[in-house]
């Protein structure tokens, strides 16, 4: 079965589920919700006022929602131009189409407490960093990567028990959805985007659009405290560009055991300042080479002997999303901080850590309550052992470039809500120590992110 056939089959399965959930047939009387759908169709807003560019599909979207099915679609474009650095100055754009159907199985099929989700994603375009030779530790376009192909990115079922206190999820999942997730839709630099863990160890921890078989248990301990536990297949075959719809297990190298503790307090006199705090970690049981040492414990880059073998990968992460100033009723005047941190083990990972802080303020200018201005600083650090090896290579006359240490990325952008469905986000980026090297000149880039809610 070729990729286009798989895409057609998945698209057909999604459509069939939506039509089955929508309910009414020619032999049955229209349900009460049909009146709602007809009214929605009759009051369809114009293109510049509607929250979704494709509208309500003649009332079908409302009818599906009433029946428990929510269809989400968007196209995001990340583009940039490097004013300096690399082999030349140039412009590149990358895009991502996201199509998802989420089904409340209680409304749709009478199975209370259940949720089913299927997501297809397609990435297009080019990487500015790759095409002009910026040689960075992190890309300057958050949505580029994992191949310009269609992928089955979610296919899972979640069942709630004990009045929602317990949630069990299984199917095709991603580590980044359930562990260490924070919003990053208002930035272009990957230095700032979470979850940070899967971006410094991207060879075995995956974010969207790549999925793997896995299970996750979420347990509410108190109204503000949850714990997440999961087991996810570690399978590099899922990264291949000819495996966008691969559902097998051949090629699996181990299992990823992940855990996270989450606290969701509300601060302020009127609980108007919600926050989310997470701390967690992971263990991947896959064998791999040591990142620097040979079988005798010496630097492999100097001896040329076989690398020492390691039995696992490990790491920890922490995340914060906190409202610092509550917005006004129109959405203006709100200030939010987002923080990401991940630290990977020294034995198996070239990059040791990633940390970022993002501040976002809404309604900076009068009459633009839904706009936001966002500023972020992020740093990615190389494994100190890798730096030591490179220093040894320099001393031995085997390397002329400076050893890699820490790369810092800074971004300032403005999110202009052109319509309720379209956001245009121009910005400026600054990269200090590109590639983590102190002997390289800093890089300045212009960026623009376009979001189309379909």
Automatic annotation (TrEMBL):
Belongs to the OprB family. Residues 1-26 form the signal peptide. PROSITE patterns: TAT (PS51318). Keywords: Signal. InterPro entries: Carb-sel_porin_OprB, OprB_Porin, OprB_sf, TAT_signal. It comes from the Bacteria. The lineage of its organism: Bacteria, Pseudomonadati, Pseudomonadota, Alphaproteobacteria, Caulobacterales. This is Carbohydrate porin. Gene3D superfamilies: Carbohydrate-selective porin OprB. Transmembrane segments: none annotated.
């Amino acid at each position: 079965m070729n990729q286009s056939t798989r895409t057609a089959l998945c698209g057909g399965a999604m459509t069939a589920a939506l039509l089955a959930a929508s309910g009414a047939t020619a032999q049955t009387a229209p349900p009460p919700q049909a009146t709602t759908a007809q009214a929605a169709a009759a009051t369809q807003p114009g293109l510049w006022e509607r929250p979704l560019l494709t509208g309500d599909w003649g009332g079908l979207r409302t009818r599906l929602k009433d029946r428990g099915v929510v269809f989400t679609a968007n196209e995001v474009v990340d583009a940039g131009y490097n004013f300096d650095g690399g082999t030349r100055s140039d412009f590149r754009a990358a895009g991502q189409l996201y199509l998802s159907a989420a089904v409340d199985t209680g409304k749709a099929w009478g199975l209370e407490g259940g949720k089913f989700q299927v997501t297809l994603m397609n990435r297009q375009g080019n990487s500015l960093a790759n095409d002009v030779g910026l040689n960075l530790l992190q890309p300057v376009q958050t949505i580029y990567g994992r191949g310009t192909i269609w992928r089955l990115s979610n296919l899972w079922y979640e069942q709630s028990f004990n009045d929602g206190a317990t949630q069990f999820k299984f199917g095709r999942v991603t580590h980044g959805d359930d562990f260490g997730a924070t919003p990053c839709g208002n930035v272009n630099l990957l230095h700032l985007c979470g979850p940070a863990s899967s971006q410094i160890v991207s060879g075995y921890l995956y974010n969207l659009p790549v999925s793997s078989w896995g299970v996750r248990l979420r347990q509410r301990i108190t109204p503000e405290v949850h714990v997440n536990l999961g087991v996810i297949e570690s399978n590099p075959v899922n990264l291949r560009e000819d495996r966008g719809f691969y559902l097998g297990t051949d090629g699996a190298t181990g299992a990823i055991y992940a855990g996270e503790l989450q606290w969701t307090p509300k601060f302020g006199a009127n609980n108007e300042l919600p926050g989310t705090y997470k701390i967690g970690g992971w263990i991947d049981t896959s064998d791999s080479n040591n990142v620097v040492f040979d079988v005798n414990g010496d630097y492999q880059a100097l001896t040329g002997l076989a690398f020492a073998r390691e039995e696992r990968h490990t790491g920890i992460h922490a995340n914060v999303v906190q409202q610092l100033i509550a917005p006004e009723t129109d959405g203006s005047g709100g200030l939010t901080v987002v923080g990401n941190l991940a630290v990977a083990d020294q034995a198996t990972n070239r990059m040791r850590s990633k940390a970022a802080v993002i501040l976002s303020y809404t309604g900076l200018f009068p009459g633009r309550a839904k706009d936001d201005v966002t500023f972020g600083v992020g740093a990615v650090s190389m494994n100190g052992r890798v730096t030591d090896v490179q220093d040894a290579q320099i001393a031995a006359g085997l390397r002329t470039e400076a050893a890699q240490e820490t790369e810092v990325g800074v971004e300032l952008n403005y999110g202009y809500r052109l319509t309720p469905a379209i956001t245009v986000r121009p910005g400026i980026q600054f990269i200090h120590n590109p590639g983590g090297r102190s002997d390289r000149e800093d890089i300045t880039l212009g960026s623009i992110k376009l979001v189309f809610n379909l």
